[in-house]
Amino acid sequence: MIYIYFIGTAGSGKSRLTGSFNEWCKRNGYDSIPVNLDPGVKKIPYAPEIDVREWISLDEVMKEYDLGPNGAQIVCADMLALNVKELEERLGEYRADYVLFDTPGQLELFAFRSAGKIIIEQLGKKNSLLAFLIDPSLATTPSNFASQLMLSATAQFRLEVPLVNVLTKIDMIDKEMLDIMMKWGKNPDLLYEELMKAPSLYSRLSEGIITVIREMEAHTSFIPLSAETWEGMEDLYASIQNIFYGGEDLERK
Ligand SMILES: Nc1nc2c(ncn2[C@@H]2O[C@H](COP(=O)(O)OP(=O)(O)OP(=O)(O)O)[C@@H](O)[C@H]2O)c(=O)[nH]1
Ligand SMILES: [Mg+2]
Q1: Ligand 2: centre distance to CA 52 (Å)
Q2: What are the residues whose beta carbon lies below 5 Å from ligand 2 (ion)?
Q3: Which of the residues 69, 108, 134, 194 has the least number of beta carbons within 10 Å of its own beta carbon?
Q4: Would you list the domain boundaries of the chain?
């Protein structure tokens, strides 16, 4: 089993991509299951095989601890760490090649609190991959784009597993903007040049940031993708294959 964790800022497209990539896998004859790890979600655009809401309910936590939704989300995220054995047992009922995890809305709940790390370690780092979703609306300027890559690098630094960066919702941006983002995503030197064009008190900081991004880019793919048109799904699949099997297709193993 390969575990793919879809992470990213709120609204970046995690749930939609979990569902559509699962659908894409099925249509192409690959064995995958979607798993919901977001206790607060009301409506999911796919039918999860395993759903954390079997164990944890945001509404109940809000009532029981008299908390608002944000405080309750934190309690739920920490409770998730306590249910990792149950999750592992439920996963043991399946024989899927790919387990696609949809994670909670706010990135920090999974990437920076303890639950994400505990789950990844319990299920096995060796078989795990982070897909970091970049919402194009948060990445239209060089500094915004670089900030998204920094978030991605921070998540990888914390969770210590391979990562692919996925630019989502490309059906919603014009071709010109997409071309620019592709250049930035594939070539940190170009991004650096753009950052340096704007006069800033923080050029030393930009240099440091680009050093981190260069280091990440050296072993990370950057995949533009749409969960609406399915453009890029094959590239996502290929980069997963590349990480785990050096490019060889699973079917041929
Ligand atoms: N056009 C288009 N819309 C998308 C795409 N991916 C996601 N969306 C839309 O973007 C919105 C947010 O997508 P979600 O999948 O709910 O994002 P999320 O990261 O799971 O959001 P939270 O869990 O609430 O933080 C929804 O309205 C989706 O339908 C895409 O590739 N194309
Ligand atoms: Mg979601």
Answers
A1: 13
A2: 14-15
A3: 69
A4: 2-138+160-174+221-252
